[in-house]
Amino acid sequence: MAIIKSAKKAIRQNKKRKAQNIVYRDKIKNLIKEVKFLVSAKKIKEAKNLLPSVYKALDKSAKVGVIKKNNASRKKSRITKLIAKSEK
After folding, report:
1. What is the pTM of this model?
2. Per-residue pLDDT for the chain (88 aa), expressed as one digit of tens each?
3. Counted domains in the chain
4. Residue numbers of the domain that contains 29
5. Nearest CA to 21 among 57, 74, 53, 70?
């Protein structure tokens, strides 16, 4: 257990940050899962409507540092490619 005051504060900060990061990660995971489900159910229009919110969540999490910029970009690309592929 931390003894020094600054170390105790760092532990408190880490707890808060971890909780916030989990929120971002769960949101991304759930949105991507939902899009994949819609694509597999041949509901392309609904998946396309969900795409902006997926982009928003990925961009926001990349901006605040939960995931890296290229990771967000790769996920966006793959989701878009998946929807475009199933559209044909």
Report:
1. 0.87
2. 889 999 999 999 999 999 999 999 999 999 999 999 999 999 999 999 999 999 999 999 999 999 999 999 999 999 999 999 998 7
3. 1
4. 23-87
5. 57
